[in-house]
Design a protein that fits this description.
Layout lengths: L7 E9 L2 E8 L4 E8 L2 E4 L19 E3 L3 E5 L6 E5 L5 E3 L6 E9 L4 E8 L8 E7 L5 E5 L4 E7 L5 E7 L10 E7 L5 E6 L8 E5 L5 E5 L6 E5 L4 E3 L22 E3 L5 E7 L2 E7 L4 E6 L5 E8 L2 E7 L6 E6 L6 E9 L11 E6 L5 E7 L9 E7 L13 H8 L3 E5 L9 H4 L9 H15 L3 E11 L1 H12 L5 E5 L5 H7 L7 H5 L7 H7 L12 E6 L7 H13 L4 E6 L9 H18 L11
Parallel strand pairs: 24-28, 31-32, 31-33, 33-34, 34-35, 35-36
Antiparallel strand pairs: 1-2, 2-3, 3-4, 5-6, 6-7, 7-8, 9-10, 10-11, 11-12, 13-14, 14-15, 15-16, 17-18, 18-19, 19-20, 21-22, 22-23, 23-24, 25-26, 26-27, 27-28, 29-30, 30-32
Length: 614
Amino acid sequence: MEAVKAIQEYAALRTRDARIYGVSFDNCSGQNRLCEFVHGEAISLLAPEFSVRSRVHEYGGGGWCFSHSSAFFINDSDQQIWSLSLESRVVRRLTDLPNCRFADLLFDPDRERLIAISETHQPDAEEPVNCLVSITGDGQVHTLAEGADFYSSPVLSPDGSQLAWIEWNHPDQPWIRTRLCLAGLGEGGQIVVSREVSDCEGAWAQPRFSADGDLHAVIDRDSWWRIERFNGRCFEPLSGEPPPATEFTTAPWQFGLSTYGWSDDGQLYAIGQHQGYSGLFRHDGERWQRLRLDSPATRLHSLTLADGQIYCIAEYSNRHAAILCLHGDGVSKTLFCDTVYGGAVPDYPVTNPEPCAIPIEQGGTVPYFLYRPADSGVARLPLVIYTHGGPTAVTAPTLKPGIQFWTQRGFMIADINYRGSTGYGRDYRMQLQGQWGIADVQDVVTVAQDLIERQLADPGAIFIRGNSAGGFTTLCALAQSRLFTAGASLYGVSDPARLNELTHKFESRYLHWLIGDPEQYPERYRQRSPLLNADRIRAPVIFFQGANDRVVLPEQTQRMVERLEANGVLVESHIFEDESHGFRKAENQARVLEQELAFYLSCISTEQKGCGSA
């Protein structure tokens, strides 16, 4: 199990008094620790009983912020806002609303209050109520904006006189259609006048005010998520030719995304995604420049600029994630990277990804990353197809210990960004509209067939695995194709109609876009339901499910297992009592891989087993 060890993940960087802070996820304990990063060490600021995590929309984000002398954070166990004195380290609970969750914390220094997104769960309500709120120093919560189904991304102008935010309604998702609103604030902080300033239909994201008070936002006006400036009447592109085929944000599954900001000298820095890889760009007021990092990374996120420094989180294909401090002379295209924390090189050989793309009959290409074990000595390798979750998400060519686990054991991996994935423009993202369970399945089957035809993959050892929405793609592929030897569903969707009835508010209309309105198109749900098409699955399937999952309820997996067993299909099912949607603990991640490997090997014929052994 040398590839599956305790690793750290980082998010939500902030700076204060030239010090760098952030959230460090420890997959041994499953907790999010609020840390200060000093001289290569992560110093936790909170006692072990606290874990910084919001559960608004179930996926959370934006779980902490600074005030003048404190840090405010959302505690996972009670979803309330707490404060931490940075001087005395005293912790106290600020809010006491058991039915309310919070996210996207923002400190309003002029009024000594917090601004946040609230999500109120009442037992007799059809669904939770989301609002934009303020929280005073005595824990009182006051509504600033209400009426929309969802809110996110509040941001204050430098003089505190204006507040901007994103809002949207059912049945849209924030990567399909949102509105950008701008409001004037009175002396007491109340909204005096509010108006929508988004001037086109699209997915608006990440409003930001520059130091001179100009409102900016990211909008996919021309298919690509790009940064534009509000001139008081409408938004306009920044001057200069924008970087081609580059997006400056990603699907906001979580609150608190941060992909652009301004340096002290007024230059804009932004993280852009191009063909699955991240790059850092600078706009000097006239033109865009792509910057070179002296230590190239494959994915960058959590950009923050303060005290003349640029900080971000970097992920690599061949070493663990790191917090970086970037610096240069402000003119050169090269920035130098000082590692603040992390970035260790694994103590095992690493297989690097190969960027690939394959043409499809529908036009265009499907990108994926291929991982081939080094010096395997086998002409045709057993293949595992990875289908990412979301499905409106993306897989990046970063170090994934799970993938290294497979390549160490002689398996080849194809990690696919099927149609609907982000980072390739709105047009590509929208190709999954009404086509979930069809387009994504066609893409994974096409990649597998191509690797077989090129004599890279062993046709007798083709496996497919996916988590959440990727589990749905996996089960649909097993029902629609005889290409696969076996499959693995990790807390995957098996009954989309039932999911429509039971899932949480954030995704409660998502399937209306992915498949169609269930009342108008009930036949689509029947045709694409793995549960209702279980008699078409002949390949063995292994299931992994968290008992506390509130996104894909455990009953989905249980019913699918029962149906396959009744049909005589070889099935294994593993329930993790201490996990929810997404397995957070290293020991459980390791168990999944060990059990999955053993299951796959049992499905390969005797003469083939040697090519998949350790």
